[in-house]
Design goal:
Strand order of the largest sheet: 3-2-1-4-5-6-7
Order of helices and strands: EHEHEHEHEHHEHHHE
Helix content: 40-55%
CATH architecture: 3-Layer(aba) Sandwich
Largest sheet: 7 strands, parallel
Shape: globular
Bound molecules: NADP nicotinamide-adenine-dinucleotide phosphate
Number of strands: 7
Number of domains: 1
């Protein structure tokens, strides 16, 4: 049987990297996408290769429609198919609404929401012809409950939730499943930037009394790409230690 091909945006570090390594270890050929840091991306691809994965690195800003299309075209030229798309790229530009610039609002919407739209649009064209595929979008608990200082991020992730459900409905008849994961607090570069008192406050609101790990997210991705989840689509699944219930 042909090996399955998984494209993971923003997989040079953090959650995306953990997903890439997990899928490589499960015999997928994994494509590592990044926007800025090529060295990190190459190092992830090299580790994937150690698992036997035919991995490549593809640079591209998902917020730019022509670059998003070029990422997909590059993958199709090499592999001729895409079985899995994980829309994981994301950024934060935190600030209170009164002080938030239009640029900071737009840049977060552009990467987190529009990037997910562009990648889903260009990949689904090929998945529809294949009559199968799995798309997983990275949402956030913040998209469900909002947060002080994160209006742009919350709006982008709430948008991802609506986009996920719409894609699931549009693509279901073509054998494509679309789900979203809503992580709570996962220890990565993104959350490392928060100061210790903010982290302590967050911890108080996590019933399981611990931050999540990138492997907690990769475990769910591994389930959602497998046939064990063949009857699950259009769902937003929280991995948050009980933060939102
Ligand atoms: P991270 O460590 O900051 O990594 C972000 C990744 O996205 C990097 O690989 C980065 O690559 C890439 N990226 C950023 N802008 C990009 C763009 N325009 N085009 C392509 N790639 C881009 O973040 P993380 O914590 O792993 O988060 C991953 C996802 O999970 C995000 O969508 C985030 O919103 C979501 N999430 C995270 C948490 C958490 O607690 N960590 C919670 C909820 C949701 P370059 O640096 O090379 O650009």
């Amino acid at each position: 049987m042909a090996r399955k091909v998984a494209l993971i945006t923003g997989s040079s570090r953090g959650i995306g990297k953990a997903i890439a390594l997990r899928l490589a270890s499960e015999s997928y050929d994994v494509i590592i996408n990044y926007n800025r840091d090529e060295a990190e991306a190459l190092s992830v691809a090299n580790t994937c290769k150690e698992f036997g994965s035919d991995s490549i690195v593809v640079k591209g800003n998902v917020a730019n429609p022509s670059e998003a299309k070029a990422i997909v075209d590059t993958v199709m030229e090499k592999y001729g198919r895409i079985d899995i798309l994980v829309n994981n790229s994301g950024i934060t530009r935190d600030g209170l609404i009164l002080r938030m610039s239009e640029e900071d609002f737009d840049s977060v919407i552009d990467v987190n929401l529009k990037g997910t739209f562009y990648m889903s649009k260009y990949v689904s064209r090929f998945m529809m012809k294949q009559r199968e595929g799995v798309i997983i979008n990275m949402a956030s608990v913040i998209g469900e409950i909002g947060n002080i200082g994160q209006a742009n991020y919350a709006a982008s992730k709430a948008g991802v939730i609506g986009l996920t459900k719409s894609c699931a409905k549009e693509f279901a008849s073509r054998g494509i499943r679309v789900n979203a994961i809503a992580p709570g607090f996962i220890a990565t570069d993104m959350t490392d930037a928060l100061n210790e008192s903010v982290k302590d406050k967050i911890l108080e609101n996590i019933p399981l009394n611990a931050f999540g790990t990138v492997e907690d997210i990769a475990n769910l991705v591994n389930f959602l790409v497998s046939d064990q989840s063949r009857y699950i689509t259009g769902q937003i699944i929280n991995v948050d230690g009980g933060m939102v219930m």
